[in-house]
């Protein structure tokens, strides 16, 4: 006999979450008595829950006696937006990984630094050993060079002034003039041939949101000998980058 089991629910957690929703419905705050009434809770229970939420940073009592959400809620909100971004980005990375049989990366220019946001790899498509962070090795990676190519002159000069062009392999470009000459590509494909790690090649295409305000790059890594075949698949990378552009635009408006 099939029987749908109801999940085991903890009533106190339900009451606390419902109370937080009621607090959030009052942008200017509300007194405990009003919150208790709207949440359908005894006043004593509401007080206990509010004090607990305040202790944990999820609620705060202002000097005039009204309650508002605490700063920790905003922190959670920021983290949830990052998780939402990952949830939307990862399917595209996985799809490209499976199409090309390579590890795929997504990076963005955040707070004047280049950050690696997500990676999709697997047993047959291992990621490159990130022994130097992408934020410190932009000049030696396709992903980093692709992001740098999208910066205006002022931001590009600022970034390069704060990040020395360290040689990571004998093939790393360490001369600023030469690096700048490699940032432009007629097909919009940035490349790294053994510049970050010997035996590893990378390719990247730009990703922006609809306004151009979000700057990022979709990249892959593979054995250097496989790179020419990847170059011939640039159209697939650009198509997946367009998917990410739509994702970024959707994320920014929700």
UniProtKB/TrEMBL annotation:
InterPro entries xrefs: GAF-like_dom_sf (IPR029016), HTH_MetabolicPath_Reg (IPR050707), Tscrpt_reg_IclR_C (IPR014757), Tscrpt_reg_IclR_N (IPR005471), WH-like_DNA-bd_sf (IPR036388), WH_DNA-bd_sf (IPR036390)
Alphabetical list of Pfam families matching this protein: HTH_IclR, IclR_C
Keywords attached to this entry: DNA-binding, Transcription, Transcription regulation
Domain of life: Bacteria
Domain IclR-ED: 72-254
SMART domains noted in UniProt: HTH_ICLR (SM00346)
Residue ranges constituting the HTH iclR-type domain according to the UniProt record: 10-71
Sequence intervals crossing the membrane: none
UniProt cross-references to PANTHER family, sorted A to Z: HELIX-TURN-HELIX TRANSCRIPTIONAL REGULATOR, ICLR FAMILY (PTHR30136), HTH-TYPE TRANSCRIPTIONAL REPRESSOR ALLR (PTHR30136:SF24)
Protein name stated in the entry: IclR family transcriptional regulator
Organism whose genome encodes this protein: Actinomadura nitritigenes
Species lineage: Bacteria, Bacillati, Actinomycetota, Actinomycetes, Streptosporangiales
């Amino acid at each position: 006999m099939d029987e749908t089991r109801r999940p085991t629910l903890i009533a106190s957690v339900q009451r606390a979450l419902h109370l937080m929703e009621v607090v959030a419905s009052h942008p200017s705050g509300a007194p405990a008595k009003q919150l208790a009434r709207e949440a359908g809770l005894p006043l004593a229970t509401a007080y206990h829950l509010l004090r607990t939420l305040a202790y944990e940073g999820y609620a705060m009592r202002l000097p005039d006696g009204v309650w508002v959400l605490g700063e920790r809620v905003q922190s959670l909100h920021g983290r949830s937006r990052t998780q939402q971004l990952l949830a939307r980005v990862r399917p595209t990375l996985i799809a490209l990984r499976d199409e090309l049989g390579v590890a795929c990366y997504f990076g963005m220019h955040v707070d004047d630094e280049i950050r690696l946001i997500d990676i999709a790899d697997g047993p047959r498509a291992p990621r490159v050993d990130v022994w130097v962070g992408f934020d410190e090795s932009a000049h030696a990676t396709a992903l980093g060079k692709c992001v740098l190519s999208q910066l205006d002159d002022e931001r590009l000069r600022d970034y390069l002034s704060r990040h020395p062009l360290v040689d990571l392999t004998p093939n790393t470009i360490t001369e600023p003039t030469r690096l700048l000459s490699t940032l432009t590509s007629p097909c919009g494909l940035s490349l790294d041939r053994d510049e970050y790690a010997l035996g590893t090649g990378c390719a990247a295409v730009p990703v922006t949101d609809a306004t151009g305000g979000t700057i990022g790059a979709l990249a892959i890594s593979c054995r250097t000998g496989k790179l020419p075949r990847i170059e011939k698949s640039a159209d697939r990378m650009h198509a997946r980058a367009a998917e990410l552009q739509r994702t970024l635009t959707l994320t920014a408006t929700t």
